[in-house]
Amino acid sequence: MKMKIEVKVVSTTIIKPSSPTPSHLRFYQLSFIDQMSNNIYNPFVMFYSAEEKSNRPANIVKLSHNLKKSLSIVLSQYYPLAGRIKDNFVLDCSDEGIPFSEAKVNGKLSDVIQQLDPAELHKFVPFELDGQSDFLLGVQLNIFDCGGIAILSCVSHKIADAFSSLMFIKFWALANQGDNDDKLEQLSPQFISATIFPPKDISAIHIPRVHIPNKKIVTKRFVFDSSKIDALRGKYVKNQLIKRPSRVEALSAFISSRYIAATRVRPGKRFYAIAHAFNFRTRFDPPLPENSFGNLSRQFIRPLDSTKGEEESYVDVLRQMRDLISSGNDKDNIKKLQEGIDQCFNFMNEHAEELSKGEIVTLNFTSLCGFRLYDQFDFGWGTPLWVGANPPLFKNLVVFVDTKSGDGIEAYIDFEEEDMARFERDDVFLSFVSSTT
């Protein structure tokens, strides 16, 4: 039986940049992708054991003070995060600050992690994830009965993609360690997104607000170890004219094919589409610096031909998944996006009626694999025991992150309750799952 956790906020402090933002940087230009993005949040929760106390203050008050002080210093570099959205064209870097909450959590950290329902991770977040808040960043320090802690950071998707959020945490962790001035200087954020994707007049475009439902969408976490992934990468492809897939290609195609198999039985006409988010930093020539801040990622989408039988479906979907992922590397597609042609938005707009009726079902994938979350998030007292990368509840969203060992993958999956019930009973799917805890 999974444990129900209770998280009670005991204090909230507004943290402002340690030095004022210069007047010439007062207004931050949103990029085209920023303009097309919703003000939802990318939350990451980092759990640290009480036993890992190398250089960690034994006193929670001191630990909290250090985190606030280093955060204030970081905000002087990441100054847009302390501002407010003025309109869908500029951000006012007003140094109004961000909330730093402290909360008490019932139970021991080890017990909570072993039994934690991924949906419970939202309790560590300082405000709702659906963008109702004016804040562009929120932080919460969660303190367990045993002395273990969990640090939550959530950055608004309106001005930053998940990779920017991760770089922010990495920068903060280094700042909290102290004596890392050279590294911090090298990793200072570069605000070039509006140069890469210039803003457009989109006043005539209706951008639907992302609705994050509280009911009927459930989140499950499935773990695939390296042996299962290797088996999946080789499954069905031995006698096929197809190159061995990457880990992400294989898992994306496998989850898609099993979801289709599980949901075909539902009444009504159903067609499927697949969407993958792409980090464009590595796709430019030369590549953009990893510390380039902003929304430098975007989804590409394509309809899925899923008419093959059970044995063939995985390979068939895999081929199409590979074609989709290849489109993310196509410089012509990136150039079109720079010109203001958003392929994903256009697809959604053209098929709005079918999507609203449930006749077209979209599966959305995002991969954070390869970032080395655990190595990057050492605040001075060791690497995290676990990093929870729970996405906001969003229908048919799959997020991949590396396991702590680095060779496995955790998949956070959001499905409708009815679909998830069928999906997690699928024997073929379960045969490749290593763990759900």
Notes on the structure:
- The protein is α+β, with helices and mostly antiparallel strands.
- The chain folds into 2 domains: 9-196, 2-Layer Sandwich (Chloramphenicol Acetyltransferase); 217-430, 2-Layer Sandwich (Chloramphenicol Acetyltransferase).
- The chain has helices at 32-36, 60-77, 109-115, 162-177, 181-186, 193-196, 226-234, 247-263, 310-328, 331-338, 343-350, 352-357, 373-376, 417-423, 427-430; strands spanning 7-15, 27-29, 41-48, 84-85, 90-92, 98-105, 137-144, 149-156, 217-224, 271-279, 297-304, 360-367, 386-388, 397-402, 409-416.
- The strands form 3 sheets. A 6-stranded mixed sheet has the order 1-6-7-8-3-13.
- A hairpin with a 6-residue loop joins strand 14 (397-402) and strand 15 (409-416).
- Helix 2 (60-77) crosses helix 4, helix 7 packs across helix 8 (247-263) and helix 8 packs across helix 9.
- 42% of the residues are buried.
- Residues 210-214 have low confidence and may be disordered.
